[in-house]
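Work Package 3 (structural annotation) set out to generate three-dimensional models for the target panel prioritized at the project kickoff. During this period the team completed the workflow that converts sequence records into discrete structure tokens, so that structures can be stored uniformly alongside our sequence database. As a representative example, we reproduce one entry of 675 residues exactly as it appears in the project archive.
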Amino acid sequence: MAELLPDRAADAPKGQGTIGVVIPGYGHPQFLSEAIISACTQEIDQPLQVVVVDDGCRFPETGKVATNLMERFPGMLYYLRQENTRLPGARNAGVRFLMSMVPDLDAVFFLDADNRLSPYSLQRYREVLGDDPLVGWAYPDISFMGLTWGEEGFDTRETAPDYSKLKHLVGNISEAGSLVRADMLRQGVLFDETMRYGFEDWDFWLTALDAGYVGRRVQHAGFLYRRRPESMLADSRRQEDELISKMRRKHAALFKPRNVMALEHREAPYFALVLAGTGDILLTSDPQADGHCLTREEFVALVRRWHHNRREFFFPDSLIILTQEQWDQMKAQPQYLRWLFWAVKEQPGNYHRWLFEARPRPYFEGLPADTPDMVNSILHVSAEGFSDLLRDAASDDEAGPVEFAPAVFQTPEPLVSGQTAPRYQSLFASLEKLVEEAAPKRPRVRHAGRRFAGPGAAACRLNLVDEVCAEEGRKPFPVATGTKRTLVAVDQDILANKAKCSRFVWLLEQLREAAEEVLLVIERGKKQDLAGLHPETWLPLVSDMVMLDRVPSGLEYRIYLGRRIYSLFTLKSKEDGAILARSVDRVITVGAAAFLEVLGDARQQGVKGYVFFDSIFADAGPLDSEDSAKILAFEHAEELVVCDNDEMVRALAAQGFPPAKFIGPQNFFDMLQNQ
């Protein structure tokens, strides 16, 4: 997690080149002299060059202030005047001037004309920036002056005590008054001069993230920000939705579901696996990915820090209490793990005991409250429920017993088996002990003049992770690996047919050459035991699987070109499918699977959909096939149709299907290999 990583900045080597300061000047000549003097009188052991960029200011005093001070700081202070380009253009002009004039430019600080620096500021910034080339900038806690809440004229805002990419996608945690490594600027990371109405600094940092850089916090930076009611930031808030939408489109790669889930896994893991009896806690957002292993003491420290300030610090949304033996048993059947953890995420309520049973047709559901305890179970506690337990433990009032609602996850071979009653009871004892150890002893104290003002941890999940990676009111499928992933959707009837299943296994073997992980979605329309679908042939070839329900084809249909197009997915299955599609790089339906109904949603997320429709998967001839009619109807969402049947290709093309969208099987696999 971001909060648990050590800060390597404190003892970093100092830079040897020149430090530049860019001060845009427009409309505030009464403050400009303070900014210039504070920049030119820095106590720093590196050469210093300061440039004031007069951005077409209508007040002649702006130029007079700068030129007068040039006599006081000869060879250090420079003055440029240009036609008005607004703040982004003025900053870029200053950067370009410094880069052309100073060959050994080491870093650049952006100081607005109404702000100022303390004498020690740039030295402190440069120490924190360090020499790691991937640390692109050092950002401050912001000490406000002017219009403030502080009784002594100052109050300080902490936007990100530990730098977090996840938080930076939700809100701007880096003030423009930061020290930026010159090499990052040389790589073309500059301000977008079309961002003329605010949030230009947030957009600048997102551009830096796109280029592979990260920031680092400067404590006690001595940066003073003048707050005014008519500031540009206040004006940008009136256009916030429009500006944020523009930035998300521009930096689309940062907001892709796969990237967001990977960031959550690294910085704010969703699950905490409390391994009863070992003292270890595993933090992860993906049960098939390597997680962060904490000792009991480290986790207790994390709990207390989060409990005292839930808005500031990330904490897992789900605690799963289980033994190491149970966890090892689960990992022995990895294809079900992500499906299980998704079910845990979405089960309503704060306290659950998950039961594991053998059932030939996998499924999960909540159970009646009076379901007896079963030893082959694990416990789940939500973060909200855990917080309630901590409050109860810290209070003098005696709390009543917690009721754990039962839920079941059933598979042909149960994920957990052979447990004993004492082992099961040890889970409750382990949770009770953890609550006792982590119960807050005293409130966390923050200086009255310092406040946290960054994006809330809960907002990062709700407004970014859930919004980008799931449907409204739903939770993302728990995948955080960066490997190539292909979703393959198939009707269970194909798997039940031995000849078709054999061809399907061949298809999976080809796909595994082009993808490291295959998510198999099996569509089930009637009761069918998994054993009848020949799982021994295809299960070893998939990384994870989910079964989605479909309805009898005669229930709902639409007419397209005089032919019936049946809607086969339930509303929930279609929603499930749209969430699953966000967790992969491509979707392939075997024939006209119900998953065709999801390809439009997948396409909106940048996930391409393909139809594998060779002869063995066709249900009938080209003119009377329900499958071909459906493939034709969803042509707008299909990237390509893989077909080895020339008659079928001609028939669909004659009905308006673009011939360029057909591809042969071998050409298709060759294409995937090169993607």
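Residues 1-13 have pLDDT under 50 and may be disordered.
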